[in-house]
Amino acid sequence: MVNPTLFNDLLSHIAKNMADKCWSDLGSLIRSDTRGRDIVYRPDVLKDANILTLCSDPNDFQAGGGHNSSGIAVEGRHRPFFLRCFAANTLTAVYYEGIRVLTHERNINGAIKLLQRHAPQRANATLACAIVFICAGYDYMGGLFLQLFTRNHYPLDSVATRVLGDEFIEEIKKFHPPYNNTYGPTFCYPTSHGISMIPCPFYCYMIS
Fold first, then answer.
1. Residue 198 — left, alpha, or beta (φ > 0 → left; ψ -120 to 50 → alpha)?
2. Which of 128, 134, 203, 205 sits most deeply, having the most CB atoms within 10 A of its CB?
3. CA distance 186 to 115
4. What is the pLDDT of residues 121-151, one digit of tens each?
């Protein structure tokens, strides 16, 4: 007789490999039976799931009742699965939920708490934290996170940093936030902790 525990462990290993490759590959296993579904939903299976394609369109994981450019938003079709990934502390889910909370709930402190979860280990989360702190007027904390970013990832004047910053802005735009420039007037380049204002932002500040 086959040991059911061994079978479940084997199935969970297969499910994790599928999840790490692409979340959409799990569909057949979820629909197979209750055991398959329960194994897929295990936190250890979903923790490192590749859900980038799920998060490419915010409408797919939007919370019901939030802001939408055409009115009240309905819950995204993949929101339940997204929340399971979020509960499993999946890096991508936590990052995008932070952006959703920032843009649609306009809860800047809640967004910071989420983005902080994977800083300074993750470059995108660390830089995003610094930017959001600065936009919220917490330039001291913004400076600290910029230091963490440069210490663990890239110099502030590097191409890689500019790319990450541009990507963060583009991700925000996908959510079509109300009052697009809500935090614009409060943005400043932090000068604490020995970080001096470089010519580019100084020039932008002078002409704005």
1. beta
2. 128
3. 20
4. 999 999 999 999 998 889 899 999 999 999 9
